[in-house]
């Protein structure tokens, strides 16, 4: 059961057996993951087909170093041209690719175990109350747009003292063709219900330009 189905030369029957197993398990895997990952239908179509695609590639380049290097370069180019996804989406793709390698080498049972077993493990770990740090979840990313004429060092200290338990400057960038600055702060509110009051106070200082408060853990890479 756990031996490779391939012989020295891959037959059509062996290949189509592997393809059917990869496609069916990929479909079940994507259906399961759709309950945990918020993404588009096209993403789940990709994760359905990805184990079969990777398996087919592995089957065809088996034993050919040159072909393997060429295919690796092609996959790298596709990744380079793709927009970065969420951590959940990246994990789903990696699981699908890992199972595809097992399928491609003829280990159908291992491929199914990797695909569906890791999907089940993902569900279990996601349901456990671990990796949930309340202090981190309370942190927000405050972005304040100001005109270039405003000296921003210390400009909001009084407001911050009134509404924030902690504040740390994490970035400054120009925007609007250099006519404005966007300041980014890592903040923790004294009272989460005072967000609107904080924004209203900041608006009096920044000339009613754009202000946003976002989850820090999700937006820190988009300063």
Give a description of the structure.
It is a single chain. This protein has 223 residues and is of the alpha+beta class. It contains nine helices and four strands; from the N terminus they run ααααααβαββαβα. The protein has helices at 12-33, 41-61, 65-80, 87-104, 108-127, 134-137, 157-163, 195-206, 216-219; strands at residues 139-147, 164-175, 180-189, 211-215. A four-stranded antiparallel β-sheet has the order 2-3-1-4. A hairpin with a 4-residue loop joins strand 2 (164-175) and strand 3 (180-189). Helix 1 (12-33) packs antiparallel against helix 2, helix 2 runs parallel beside helix 4 and helix 4 runs antiparallel to helix 5 (108-127). The longest helix has 22 residues, at 12-33. The chain is elongated, with a radius of gyration of 25 Å.
Concise description?
This protein is an alpha+beta fold and 223 residues long. It is 56% helix and 16% strand.
The termini sit apart by 51 Å
Helix content: 55-70%
Describe the strand arrangement of the main beta sheet, using strand numbers: 2-3-1-4
Q: Report the C-alpha radius of gyration, rounded.
A: 25 Å
Biggest sheet character: 4 strands, antiparallel
| Stretches with pLDDT under 50, minimum 5 residues | 219-223
């Amino acid at each position: 059961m756990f031996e490779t189905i391939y012989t020295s030369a891959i037959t059509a029957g062996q290949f189509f057996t592997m393809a059917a197993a990869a496609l069916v398990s990929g479909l079940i895997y994507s259906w399961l993951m759709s309950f945990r990952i918020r993404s588009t239908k096209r993403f789940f179509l990709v994760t359905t087909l990805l184990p079969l695609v990777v398996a087919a590639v592995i089957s065809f380049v088996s034993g050919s170093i040159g072909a393997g290097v060429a295919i690796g370069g092609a996959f790298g180019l596709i990744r380079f041209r793709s927009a970065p996804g969420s951590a959940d989406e990246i994990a789903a793709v990696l699981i699908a690719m890992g199972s595809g390698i097992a399928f491609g080498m003829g280990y159908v049972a291992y491929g199914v175990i990797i695909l569906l077993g890791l999907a089940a493990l993902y569900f279990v770990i996601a349901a456990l109350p671990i990796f949930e740090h309340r202090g981190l979840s309370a942190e927000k990313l405050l972005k304040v747009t100001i005109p270039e004429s405003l000296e921003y060092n210390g400009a909001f200290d009084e407001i911050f003292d009134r509404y924030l338990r902690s504040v740390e400057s994490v970035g400054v960038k120009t925007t609007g063709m250099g006519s404005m600055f966007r300041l980014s702060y890592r903040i923790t509110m004294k009272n989460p219900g005072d967000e609107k009051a904080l924004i209203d106070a900041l608006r009096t200082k920044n000339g009613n330009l754009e202000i946003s408060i976002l989850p820090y853990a999700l937006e820190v890479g988009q300063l």
